[in-house]
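Section 5.1 Outputs to date
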Amino acid sequence: MRIVLLIICFAVFAVGGASAASLMTNGSFEDDGHAIGDITSTKPVGWNVNIGSKFGGEITGDWKTRGSYSLLLYSYIDSVFNQTDFAEVSQQVDLTDANEIIFDIYLAGYEYDVIPWNGSKIAAYVRIDNSTNDLWASPADADGEYNAVRVPLDSNLTGIHTLRFGIRSKASERLFASYYAYWDFIKLDAFCGGNGYLEADFNRDCYVDFDDVDVLAQNWLRSDLAPADDLIDIRPDGKINLSDFVVLANQWLLCTDWQDANCVEVPLALNADINLDGIVNILDYSILIANWGVPTNLKADINGSGTVDYNDLAIMNAQWLEKSWLYKY
């Protein structure tokens, strides 16, 4: 009887913990910390890979806009393609808070030397779930580098969806040239473009400045804090005091605005926070148990092995009750 009740509790927690924050994992392809010569053999952290036999994929430093690496998808030179051939990477994300997908991309070809991208023969694309329709496709005259490409999302797209980024053949023919699509800095527009919030960014505008000083001043020496005031009590001792001001001073004029090259990214190190609510707790545990074995929710596969097992549970145990900046968003 107790086992049945436990299973019911897990199911309730799993449903209750289904909501998540709209964040891409490893959208700048930096999390592996090194180049990957073949992503079909070693998947980049956070991504699933589906590469057709006439394509290749790498994590490379040949071109990038943020950090040291980017994703490269390319067609093989002098190969016969069908119109249905493609190569793509994908990731499950929650789109509830997101209005746009944003990314940088570089398109080019190679045949003895660098040549223009040929939009009549091949296309880069963004798709969602199992749809064969493009959310975005490279224009027919596309060539070269494009920064901060914005793809609007339908407001009805909430909850968990799979975003797919790839290249595909547009014709059934032999392509004598190879075509390259580099992707970098893929993000959703929520939470400072995924860069997160600094602790002292009280008003959540991606900057620590006088607006945040004003919030701190209005609450100075308060000890009658409600749960909603936890955000201001940075060093939680039940009151707003010098210890909170010290954090603000240390973060003074820092920012996490993704559009500002001088700003920083706040790491989201808790990979066991499956539902992205900012804390590793029973809600994440219930999702992990519900996905034991072959997962439906791919974030439950914490170590990316393809199976949810005791290795994932060990990672969760090591991060149990730890919190990230998302906890107070």
